[in-house]
Design a protein that fits this description.
Layout lengths: L1 H12 L3 H18 L1 H13 L4 H22 L11 E4 L1 H7 L6 E4 L6 H12 L5 E5 L5 H11 L4 E5 L2 H12 L3 E4 L10 E6 L2 E6 L1 H9 L2 E9 L6 E7 L30 H25 L19
Parallel strand pairs: 1-9, 2-5, 2-8, 3-4, 3-5
Antiparallel strand pairs: 6-7, 8-9
Helix pairs in contact: 1-4, 2-4
């Protein structure tokens, strides 16, 4: 099965982006039709956010396009630039942050071509300030190997979503590098708090805020818009709509520390620290909501955002 899939992915990687987006739209609707649980989750999540029916329908096709464009992005040679037209809006925010003490944290939700966003950063800025991106390894061994090879690019490395990965992110920021995070990805148990996301509690990472508070990193948000008819991409960068509450006067906990009853630190009552963690997670969710609502058709509404967290690896 892995050999067959590898051949299929290789074949797809050689197709034009416009062709892949046509195939992807069919794939998206096929997944929607064949999976009642996916269909219900996508509909429920989008309705909860007040998304219009037309945008919900477009989101079905856009999810398939995201999957279909992956082989073209992943399987090109490591030193070869992204094959499709790509432009930037707001790159000056990154340029202004390069070289600042504490490094840079870029938050990119499950919106548009988020895989392209990381590789586009590496292509433009990686030689000056490399990025380490947090990711969740695939369960299938063959796909996990492919992901690791595809995402390891000049100026871009990866860290697994585990405590070891968190330590890698902290070291990267301490070296003045950049860290990339999916802030709407459900973190492992003990690495987040419950905070509202489109009106319903969702287990939300506090990692970005903890890293920024510990290192003094600049925090920006970015997303990569998928242009119609295979015309390429636009990477958009801007500050968070709702800044993180970093100036608390509390002593700083270790990055990746849990947010339960024992999350307090010396000189910081546990209740106060827990309130800060919830405020930070809420600020992140509100920023992501504002971004998503500007471009709802390209958000992955089928992602299981409200699930219970898995045990810490």
């Amino acid at each position: 099965m892995s050999r067959l899939m590898s051949r299929l992915l290789y074949w797809l990687s050689r197709r034009r982006l416009s062709t892949l987006h046509v195939l992807g739209a069919v794939l998206g609707w096929g997944a929607w039709a064949l999976s009642p649980s996916y269909r219900a989750r996508l509909g429920d999540n989008a309705r909860r956010a007040g998304i219009a029916l037309a945008d919900r329908r477009r989101a079905v096709a856009e999810a398939g396009r995201m999957s279909a464009e992956m082989p073209r992005l992943w399987l090109r040679p490591a030193g070869q630039p992204i094959a499709d037209p790509l432009r930037w809006e707001g790159a000056h925010w990154i340029e202004a942050a390069l070289g600042r003490p504490g490094g840079l944290v870029i938050l990119t939700p499950h919106l548009g071509s988020f895989e392209v966003a990381a590789q586009a950063y590496a292509e433009r800025f990686g030689a000056t300030q490399p990025m380490t991106a947090l990711y969740r390894p695939a369960r299938q061994p063959w796909l996990r190997r492919l992901e690791e090879q595809a995402r390891a690019r000049p100026g871009l490395s990866t860290a697994p979503a585990s405590l070891a990965g968190v330590r890698s992110l902290l070291r990267a920021l301490q070296r003045g590098h950049t860290v990339g995070l999916l802030p709407d990805q459900v973190p492992p148990q003990g690495q987040g708090v419950w905070a509202p996301f489109f009106g319903q509690p969702a287990y939300t990472m506090t990692l970005a805020a903890r890293l920024a508070r510990q290192t003094g990193a600049t925090v920006l948000q970015a997303w990569c818009e998928r242009l119609p008819h295979g015309a390429g991409y636009v990477v958009r960068v801007e500050p968070l709509a709702h800044p993180l509450p970093l100036e608390t006067g509390l002593s700083v906990p270790a990055a990746g520390a849990g947010d339960g009853a024992g999350a307090g630190t010396a000189g910081a009552p546990a209740a106060t620290e827990a309130a800060w963690a919830e405020a930070a997670a809420t600020a992140i969710n509100r920023s992501m909501e504002a971004l998503i609502l500007r471009h709802p058709a390209q958000y992955l509404w089928g992602y299981h955002r409200y699930k219970a967290p898995r045990p810490t690896p």
